[in-house]
Amino acid sequence: MIKTLALFVLTAAPALAQDIAPDEMPPGLVSARLLPGWVTSDGARMTALAVELEPGWKTYWRSPGDAGIPPHFDWQAAGNLGEVELFWPRPEVISSGGERTLGYHDRMLLPIRIAPAAPGQPVEPRAVVDLGICLDICVPVQVSLEAGPAEPAPDPRIEAALARVPGSSEDHPDCRITEIADGMQVTAMLPESGRAAGDQVAMEHQSKDIWVSAPETAELDGRLAVAADFVAASGKPFPLDPGDIRLTLIGPQDAVEYHGCKLVD
Fold first, then answer.
1. 3-state secondary structure of 262
2. Per-residue pLDDT for 9 more than 70?
3. How would you class 62 by CB atoms within 10 Å of its CB: exposed for 0-12, middle for 13-18, buried for 19 or more?
4. Which residue ranges does the record assign to the Thiol:disulfide interchange protein DsbD N-terminal domain (predicted)?
5. In the chain, which ranges are continuous DSSP H helix?
């Protein structure tokens, strides 16, 4: 059984591990930082959340499954903050205690692009980040981070993480949407063209208020079929726009995302 420890709250300037004594670090966490990054040609600030963990520990992807805790960012202290975009590298499929989760072992580097609220003025990345890290215990951690001054050139670590972000397909899987007692069930048939990417699937709704069950998959006529339940806070059937569904096909070396599905009879 996975156990959960109390919340650890750490406050840090640009580098966390150097400012926190080893005996004050929560179990499993080596360091957490916002990398300085650089300023893009259009004035946006590129940075990244860099998390280093003890060997064997893991943290989670944006939609980790029933047992995971995705990172959450509070940017209230940031300066000149405009639109924030997170670029999630392809996650690992992790099996533990009979549960499938999606996340990252040992380290995570999550690229972040921040547009300036006032064009021409510098962005000052500061965030309070909540994340979960797990081994055979799970530790919810909160860190207060600030990126240092932007570097003059792109950071190759961030560029490498961007290269691992799943590609976006222009195809739309065929899908059926049916009512169930407490919400809606979506069954989708993934295009044959994407099968080379892998055979693990994540299904998401664009609203974080919609809970999505762990998907079930099956082979049908050479194509991968996937089904999941979508449940709103009402606990009742609700109008579900197929354009709000995102499917990600994940393999050990590749991944592809499908944005929206096409309703079929």
1. strand
2. no
3. middle
4. 41-145
5. 156-163
